[in-house]
Predict the 3D structure of the following.
Amino acid sequence: MLIDIHAHAAGNYSTVDSIKNMAAKYKLEKIVLCTSPKNIHNLQEPPSMPFKQKPDSIFRMNRMNRMAYNHFLKDNGDGNQFVFGLKNQLPQLIIQFLWVNPLDAVHMNNLENSIRTYQPKGIKLHQAWNSFQIDGKEFKKLVDIASFNKLPVFIHLYSKKEVLKLLRFIKDNPNAVFIIGHLTGTDLIKDSGIDLKNIYFDTSSSKRIQGRDVQQAIEAFGYEHIVFGTDTPYAGIDDQIERIEQLNLSDNIKDHIYRLNARNLLALDQ
């Protein structure tokens, strides 16, 4: 069984029937779902980018993603409400993460009410689409609210500069729980000397991340801090599984990465 800790309500995860089909095909125990950018449902896996595929190439992609998000994508309704509707139809399968833009006054003013209404298991932040700063007051307020409600914050980081800011934030806020998407900035993070007991890393990506990158993350942070994600529809689930399966990992370690770490992190047994 698998728990996909990183998916968007688009493509194969955009309808009840398609989600049920994916769950049956890949033996998905749970799908952690948040809205797609601007609640657009017909997104597909993007083409390969014309530069060297390596983990840090995400920073260059982020600049293009932010431009597309701000200038080419049109709003398509309330994505959190859409995901909530899917969750209500598949409550045993879908776990909702609440998408929040810390720079959006409506999001922030209604955050605690949204947490009560949607009952999410986490908060999703995306710096490639929303240009908030880790050292901004909005981010601190959001993390304080998330921590009070015992919710992890899943974050897609924008740049190396923001990775370093997050490390300083973690040092000053050791009880905040973060899931860092796409193994972003792991080279900087592993050499920081900061206590990372509440930090987790999501394995999802396109071809930027290879099996060796996952292996290095396991060695640096411990397999208990690695969680399986697909970033559907931005990457194929088969590739994400193959990346783990090609490694010489014990069944116990794979089971933790595929599902047990997520169950513990999200308190699914409680």
Remarks:
- DSSP finds eleven helices and eight strands in the chain.
- The CA atoms of residues 99 and 124 lie 5 Å apart.
